[in-house]
Amino acid sequence: MDDERASDLRVAEHLADHDGVITTAQALTLGMTRGQIRARRRSGLWTPHARSTHLSAEHRMTDAARIRIVSSAHTGAVIDRTAAAWLHGLADRLPDEVTASVARSGSNTPRCVVPASIRRRTYPAEDISNVRGIPVTALPLTVLTAAAELPDGIAILDRVLQTRRVTVAELRATLDRNSGIHGLRPARPILESADSLSESELERRFVRFLRKHSITGWQQQVWLGNRRLDFAWPAEQVAVSLHGWAFHHQHDRWENDQATTSALASIGWLPLVFTWKRLEYQPDEVLAELARALDLRRAVQ
Predict the structure, then answer these.
(1) Residue after which a domain boundary falls, among 178, 194, 210
(2) What pLDDT score does 190 carry?
(3) 179 and 93 share a domain?
(4) Which has the minimum average pLDDT: 77-81, 82-86, 109-113?
(5) Which residues form the domain of 163?
(6) Do 47 and 161 lie in a common domain?
(7) Which of 9, 94, 98, 15 is nearest to 57 (CA)?
(8) How far apart are the two ends of the chain, measured CA to CA in Å?
(9) Domain end: 194, 219, 250, which one?
(10) Sign of the CA dihedral with 216 first, then 221, 223, and 226 last
(11) Which of 77, 67, 73 is nearest to 24 (CA)?
(12) In a shared domain, residues 104 and 165
């Protein structure tokens, strides 16, 4: 009986530390018998969600539990893509399908009631880490897949570079190691831009954008008092500031940008801010906003 109590305590501790998820192998290691495991299933204390993988009735089906079930159900699974982004704290929401990969050589196709997107791929050992005991793609690779797949992936990339959780060099090395992986191709131009895009290059891109759409009346690098404007339409009193990658800039640059925006508004100018991301991926919206601002000012002149 003492052995059974000790086993029950170890199992309870395991469930508390693993979001209520336990496998048959883990239960046996903790001292339970197969008969005791079957009894817990029959009584409803443990609900099987995949072969040999259970969720305790005392625990809710949380996002973390969903990930653990998928990870346990598929032999050798590595949590990756959007689920890895959530696990690393890069995304606020876990998608309906838990994303993971298993080795190409495996023959594992278990029944699992938790929706999952399983791909067959093998990651280099240096690109696999461990979060709360769960095998997951390491942070640099997770950031790259987030940049390529998530709507706010570029913002995630910029944020982790700002906080120095990863470096451009680490991302570049990771991308080179995994260059053949499906879905990572969009990350390369994004990373190249983060690595090399300067303010002058961003301004040259905007000049090409303006000329392409036959927008006239602008001047570049205009001084208004002691404030330098990236682009200005003096007749319409419209100013445009261009922002590249935030991780390149110090906090005092951000403070100066806010002060410039406030100063322009106080003297009747209309300040607009366009980012590299929007110029690259939403040029039609940028064009519409700029044209609307110029038309508005010209209508009241």
Answers:
(1) 194
(2) 86
(3) yes
(4) 109-113
(5) 63-194
(6) no
(7) 15
(8) 91
(9) 194
(10) positive
(11) 73
(12) yes
Residue 253: band (very low, low, confident or very high) from pLDDT cuts 50, 70, 90:
low
The C-alpha angle with vertex 145 and arms to 187 and 183, in degrees rounded to 5, equals 70
Break the chain down into helix, strand, coil percent, rounded to 5.
Answer: 50, 20, 30
Range in 2-11, 27-36, 165-174, 232-241 with the lowest mean pLDDT: 2-11
Q: Note the Cα 151 to chain centre separation in Å.
A: 9
Question: 298: which 2 tokens?
Answer: 């010209």
Confidence of residue 134 (pLDDT cuts 50, 70, 90): very high
pLDDT of 105 above 80: no
Angle between helices 168-177 and 187-196 (to 10 degrees): 150
CA dihedral 14, 17, 19, 21 (to 10 degrees): -20
- Nearest alpha-carbon partner for 272 in 283, 284, 280, 264: 264
Paired tokens of 203: 């301004």
Task: Assign residue 294 the CATH number of its domain.
Answer: 3.40.960.10
Question: What total number of domains does the chain contain?
Answer: 3
How many whole angstroms separate alpha carbon 48 and alpha carbon 56? 9
The residue type found at 138 is A
Least confident of 134-138, 189-193, 195-199, 265-269: 195-199
Hunting for tokens 């905007």 — which residue is that?
206
Provide long-range contacts, Cβ within 8 A and 24+ apart, for 131-136.
131/87, 131/88, 132/64, 132/87, 133/18, 134/67, 134/68, 134/71, 134/79, 134/87, 135/71, 135/77, 135/78, 135/79, 136/78, 136/79, 136/80, 136/84, 136/87, 136/88
